[in-house]
From TrEMBL:
GO terms (BP aspect): mitochondrial DNA replication
Highest taxon listed in the record's lineage: Eukaryota
One MF term in the entry's GO annotations: single-stranded DNA binding
CDD domains in the record: SSB_OBF
Keyword list, A-Z: DNA-binding
UniProt name for this protein: Single-stranded DNA-binding protein
InterPro entries: NA-bd_OB-fold (IPR012340), Primosome_PriB/ssb (IPR000424), ssDNA-bd (IPR011344)
Claim: DNA-binding is one of the keywords in the record: yes
Length: 172
């Protein structure tokens, strides 16, 4: 348990450093050249490794469904499900005061999973979601104005969680 807590602490510190990027840089889509340079083939003595071996896009969230999910079918006839998941975090500032931070995440589920979940989850359901981040927007238009960049989560796994049973002191 202590090893796990230390590794989580290390991850948290690196996450804070990554989050310190300016909002301008975070809003920009990487250019094709930047992506190609980053994942360029290694020298011939390293060809046995996969090209994207050091790349990962993974998200895990536990929270509550904000509104009833929206079940739709794409133009190609494949089903998908959209819903908002709310997560809460509590932080302690340097002066000792604490504050709560609430985040709303847009989740999309595709295929058979979407069909099954549309029948079981509703507003207030507690869920664990595993998936990947997907960004939309952040491109410059003809006038040089940057479009808003939106973040979505494409879910691979959605697991409903049971609510904790509330103790009733009147019952024995």
């Amino acid at each position: 348990l202590q090893k796990m807590l230390r590794s989580l602490s290390t991850i948290s510190k690196s996450t804070v450093r990554c989050m310190s990027l300016t909002s301008k840089l975070a809003a920009e889509q990487p250019s094709k050249q930047e992506v190609d340079d980053l994942f360029a083939e290694k020298p011939s003595h390293q060809n046995d490794q996969r090209r994207h071996a050091y790349s990962m896009n993974k998200v895990e969230l536990v929270g509550g469904v904000a509104l009833d999910p929206l079940y739709k079918e794409a133009k190609n006839g494949k089903p998908y499900l959209l819903f908002n998941l709310i997560t809460n975090s509590q932080f302690r500032q340097q002066d000792g005061t604490t504050f709560d931070q609430t985040e709303r995440h847009v989740i999309t589920v595709f295929g058979k999973n979407a069909e099954n979940l549309s029948k079981t989850i509703k507003k207030g359901s507690r869920l664990m979601v595993q998936g990947r981040l997907h960004y939309n927007g952040g491109q410059k238009d003809e006038q040089g104005n940057r479009t808003q960049r939106n973040t979505y989560i494409i879910a691979n796994t959605v697991q409903p969680l049971a609510r904790a049973a509330r103790e009733n002191p009147d019952q024995h």
